[in-house]
From TrEMBL:
Signal peptide positions on this chain: none
GO biological process, one term: oligopeptide transport
An annotated Gene Ontology molecular function: peptide transmembrane transporter activity
Name under which the protein is recorded: MFS transporter
A GO cellular-component term linked to this record: plasma membrane
Gene3D superfamilies (UniProt xref): MFS general substrate transporter like domains
Superkingdom, taxonomy of origin: Bacteria
Keywords: Cell membrane, Membrane, Peptide transport, Protein transport, Transmembrane, Transmembrane helix, Transport
Membrane topology note: Multi-pass membrane protein
Lineage, uppermost ranks: Bacteria, Pseudomonadati, Pseudomonadota, Gammaproteobacteria, Lysobacterales
Transmembrane segments: 30-55, 67-88, 95-112, 118-136, 157-177, 183-203, 234-251, 271-296, 317-336, 342-368, 380-401, 407-427
UniProt key word RNA-binding: no
Length: 454
């Protein structure tokens, strides 16, 4: 939503400098945001890949307590952006928020080198993330005009960058932590964060200009968006957010109970060698990178034929897919009697990742498109707030791991994901009407008629 200008007038998003279009025919600024997010994700998931193992093996924290600490920490990481988004929109601006937040996060990663500062380190990472997380992706929309056909796929490319960092994280930080010591892995995460900051600082000339503060665009926002249309959009986003929270209760088990199952519930031998347990967490981002171009091309073909599913339908299909992945694990564990072949875990990540691509980048793009003018970072923070509630739910559900056992637990997670899919499917009409109200006439009338016919 990056707009330049002063007073009550706003200009179109800044075009790429000198008309340059590189990076898959996208604006150069997307590459800067892509790479910055990649290294931030490397730092976060590099630390997260080691977190449960570090607590249970090094700090000797019990599984149930470690699960709750994990859930509270990852939830807090996604709660602080609510406040951070408001601070960025009203006072700091998005660029300064990214730089300050990234520096605090890097400091927190280096604090992980001391066992006595463990909880202070987690707090620092969560606080810095509050400024960083909503301020970076909220700059994407400002790279494009509203009628730019590349705008919709930008978030899929951005999501690839996020997952490229997630792919490297367990391979680098996880291996260093397992082989050379936990603190080497945590240190590598901090270095990754600093690298991302440097890329962002030196690439700022390609980014959109800062939007005016909300106090200066009240009149424009009121004129451009009628109160009833704004309310409709907000209510649709809140409903979608609640559904995604339920979905994440199951999805976020990948770094928690799934990691424990990878350690004790499967046979990790491969030609006489044991596959490091953290490497399995690299499968999800690797598959995101591999599958994203395939799915985007598929959706483009569907759109040309007028058959592309609506955002809510895509998200519902994604939730059902993740439910199917957990149902498969429930059957596998029950029949394998505690030592399943590692190939089943790889297949789980294939099914789960396919479902994920139907829901998480689609939801991020939906929140960005429906964001009120001047409140882009705050609205994106609202999307990440779904991870706050979802991770809290995931941590609480993870406490059932010991008492349920793997098979029953995975079956329960399948039901949680399926419930989220059902709710999202029921929201299809409401989301369609909200999107129709965000389109310029006469497109909004056509979209409204389509939504009503559904």
């Amino acid at each position: 939503m990056g707009y330049a200008g002063r007073g009550d007038r706003v200009s179109a998003p800044a075009a790429p400098r000198d008309g340059v279009r590189w990076f898959f025919n996208q604006p150069p600024g997307l590459a800067i945001l892509f790479l910055t997010q990649m290294w931030e994700t490397f730092s976060y998931f590099g630390m997260r890949a080691l977190l449960v193992y570090y607590m249970t093996k090094q700090l000797l924290i019990g599984q149930q307590q470690a699960s709750m600490i994990y859930g509270v920490y990852t939830a807090t990481v996604y709660f602080t952006p609510i406040v951070g988004g408001v601070i960025a929109d009203r006072w700091l601006g998005r660029r300064r928020a990214v730089i300050i937040g990234g520096a605090i996060m890097a400091f927190g990663h280096f604090l992980m080198a001391s066992e006595s500062l463990f909880f202070f380190a987690l707090a620092a990472i969560a606080l810095g993330n509050g400024l960083f997380l909503p301020s970076l992706p909220s700059q994407i929309d400002g790279l494009y005009a509203k009628d730019d056909p590349r705008r919709g796929s930008a978030y899929n490319f951005y999501y690839v960058g996020l997952n490229l960092g997630g792919l490297l994280a367990p391979l680098v930080c996880g291996t260093l932590g397992e082989v050379y010591g936990w603190h080497w892995g945590f240190g590598a995460a901090g270095i990754g964060m600093l690298g991302g900051l440097l890329l962002y600082v030196f690439g700022q000339r390609w980014l959109p200009q800062e939007p005016p503060r909300p106090a200066r665009v009240v009149e424009t926002t009121t004129d451009a968006t009628p109160r009833h249309a704004l309310k409709q959009r907000v209510m649709a986003l809140v409903a979608v957010a609640l559904c995604v929270m339920v979905f994440r209760g199951a999805y976020e088990q990948t770094g928690n109970t799934i990691a424990l199952w990878a350690d004790a519930g499967i046979d990790r031998s491969f030609f006489g060698l044991a596959i490091p347990m953290t490497w399995f967490q690299a499968l999800n981002p690797l598959l995101v990178i591999a599958l994203t171009p395939v799915l985007v091309a598929h959706w483009v073909r569907q759109a040309r034929r007028g058959r592309e599913p609506t955002p809510a339908r895509k998200m519902a299909m994604g939730a059902f897919g993740v439910g199917a992945a957990f149902a498969m694990l429930a059957v596998v564990d029950a029949s394998a009697h505690g030592q399943a072949n590692w190939i089943w875990l790889a297949l789980f990540f294939l099914v789960l990742t396919t479902g994920e691509l139907f829901i998480l980048p689609i939801g991020l793009g939906l929140f960005a498109r429906l964001a009120p003018k001047g409140h882009g970072a705050t609205t994106i923070a609202g999307w990440f707030f779904t991870s706050f509630g979802g991770n809290l739910l995931a941590g609480a559900l993870g406490m059932l791991w010991t008492s349920f056992g793997p098979s029953a637990f995975f079956g329960a997670m399948a039901l949680v994901a399926a419930a989220a899919g059902t709710l999202l499917r029921l929201l299809d009409g409401a989301v369609g009407r909200a999107e129709a109200g965000n389109l310029p006439a006469p497109a909004s009338r056509l979209a409204a008629e389509h939504a009503q016919s559904d």
